[in-house]
Sequence to fold (498 residues):
Amino acid sequence: MRPFKTGIIRETLAGYPCTGRGYGVLKVMKKETIAAISTGMTNSGIGIVRISGEDAFAVADRVYRGKQRLSDAESHTIHYGHIIDSGETVDEVLVMAMRSPRTFTGEDTIEINCHGGTFVVRRVLETVLKNGARPAEPGEFTKRAFLNGKMDLSQAEAVIDVINSENEYALQSSISQLKGSIKNKINDIRNKIIYHTAFIESALDDPEHIEIDGYADTLLEAAEEIIHDLEEMISSADNGRVIREGINTVILGKPNAGKSSLLNVLAGHERAIVTDIEGTTRDILEEQIRLGDLSLNVIDTAGIRQTEDVIEKIGVDRAMEYAGKADLIIYVVDASREIDENDEKILPLIKDKNTVILLNKSDLDTVVTEEMIKKKAGSICSGFPEEGETKKEIPVISISAKEEKGIEKLEKKLKEMFLNGIVSFNNQICISNVRQKNALADAEESMKKVVESINAGMPEDFYSIDLMDAYEALGSITGESVGEDLVNEIFSKFCMGK
Fold:
């Protein structure tokens, strides 16, 4: 049995969508006019109350007084006047009038620009709600933009990423996605899949006019190309997480090596308690730190050593656990003390990890040199690199956390390690979240089944089933094949006015 009718395929090839925005999603479209505060709820120079829906102009006319009714205004014009509530002036405002479909939501939209005090903005919103609008749900403006075809789901997700961006690279990556970089790539792959599916289905339905013998070789080449593209996109997910969320960084070292002092220097304030007593840091301390364009999610751990103290031992175990999950390990070595069994316990943890070794306490008489620690690390981490690759050399930097010396060298090295790579992929597609990554993985698995079926000499019907599974999986990224529950979950993460 075919997985679908060829008539649908032919419509797709003729330029018609195979499905809509999902079978259940259309139910969430609501006719009510919605309103919300679209600026931050802090005192500021200006505040914006946004209204969207088919009655947006009617609602605005009930609360706005100016030289003309807003319903008579031309689209994309700004008007001076006042917001009135029961004959009382609420605020002096500028109102932007925008008619569908040339708006963010694709609906008639009014934006009231009022003074930015939290009380007055709330009063303006309350007045609007009293006169026919209902409060917008979290992310409902963007959800309506998606449902009205103003953007696909990947672009909608990019909106919240733009809002949450904490560095230039995260911002540019989100803007690239908002412009449609992911959408365009996904649509390109889906078009290839649906083309081959349509050909196979048409050939099976009309074997007298369409020859399918030998087509397996053509499909195999196309499938392998698609798999390659999917693998590249999946591999970008880690880069996307790093630039969006920051570099998960763990500071390791034996007790009194200067880990907490380093954290305080990086943070710019006294975040951790620093004493000469070993085992002062027992629990995990977390701090988000900006180093230029870098965002570091830094974890200061308990000093790693053999201990009989139950609480300290838990801290040591946690340190080792966090090290295994880190994007970056900063290994702080006390250069004034000999390398001992505690260092021997730490060195295996940096194997296969992005690591910077800091020789701390350079202001004292040092006994550990750069050559010594490099040799020691090299012997412990001899398991990498992979065969045929150049041996990875761990950078070693001398610092004094106490005197805040050498920190600029650390910053420079981290930029070399991470930002150079980010710059290289910043103009490429960068998958931004786990949902998209999982969908790509599902599509890849389906395409691999296509290859397996071809190599096994299976009938062409089997190709179609797996091809359509891949097609649907990719459609979930752009929103072509998603359910109402998923859409609601995605947009629930947005702020109220977006």
The domain at 151-489 is CATH 3.40.50.300 (Rossmann fold). The chain has a mean pLDDT of 78. The CA atoms of residues 359 and 440 lie 43 Å apart. The radius of gyration is 29 Å.
